[in-house]
Amino acid sequence: MKNLVVIVLALIATTGSLFAQEQTAEENASKTLEMWTKVLTLDDTQQSSIHALLIDFNKSAEVVQTDESLSEEEKGEKIESLTAELDGKVIEVLTEDQKVIYQEQIVGKRQKMIKLK
Asked: Which residues form the signal peptide (predicted)?
């Protein structure tokens, strides 16, 4: 159970401070996009598409996180599913070179964080 909470926190950390009360889903998406733009060298069209995906992800994740009817394990599973869905959609927007970097830099670091916890 404790590991699941750590996993959820690690997933959330990859998209910025998703649940910080002072920040909206849009603000969190913008912060994540800024980092990803630097790492992936995103063009304007990609930035626009990915920003929308991040906003949707953040809003959906916030709904899951605040759903009191779900156990921590269920929340973790739903967040994992949302993250996998986000990854799939983001990859569709990227070039082949960017996909490699995304897998290594974004997904890879997320997985390492989970293993370290």
From this structure: 1-20
